Amino acid sequence: MHTRPRPDWILIANTTRARVLQQEPGSAMVILESFVHPAGRGQPSDPAADAGQRECAHFAKELGRFLEQEARLAHFHRLTIFAGPTFIEVLKAGLGQATISLLAAIHELDLTAVSVAELERRVLRELALAAH
Where are the domains of the chain? Predict the structure, then answer.
């Protein structure tokens, strides 16, 4: 019996949006899930934005729960995260142990505004740059 290798996943996130991409060996990337959290518009680095900080933490926990469930179900082999600088620390704090054990890399880069057509090229370029 031949088992298919598990795909790699890529999370692209900021305080208001996130996408989970899947990369199967030898195939193009596909978007598996999209998340929108418009209440997270406050910046976590702004001390006057307590409500924004809570919303960012809430969104990070939502993403963390999703990833943790999928990691425990062995739906991906490795996870790479691209997140904006104002969200990355909050996001890392929301990750569970199963997710952390599959974490390949974290890149402080917000790619959420990149078009779907351009996304795969940008992700692959960033991964190649990080490998050198």
Answer: 8-131
Which residue shows structure tokens 């997710």?
A: 99
In the block, which residue shows the tokens 């959420």?
A: 112
| Residue ranges of E strands in the chain | 8-13, 17-23, 30-36, 79-83, 103-108
- pTM of the model as a whole: 0.86
pLDDT average per 10 residues of sequence, the chain (132 residues): 78 95 89 84 53 85 97 96 92 96 95 88 87 74
Alpha helices in 2-115 (DSSP H): 50-72, 88-93, 97-101
The domain covering 8-131 belongs, at the CATH homologous superfamily level, to eRF1 domain 2 (3.30.420.60)
Where b means 16+ CB within 10 Å and e means fewer, 2-12 reads eeeeebbbbbb
User: How deeply is 131 buried, as exposed, middle or buried, from its count of CB atoms within 10 A (0-12, 13-18, 19+)?
Assistant: exposed
Q: What is the reported pLDDT for 132?
A: 72
pLDDT for the residue numbered 48:
47
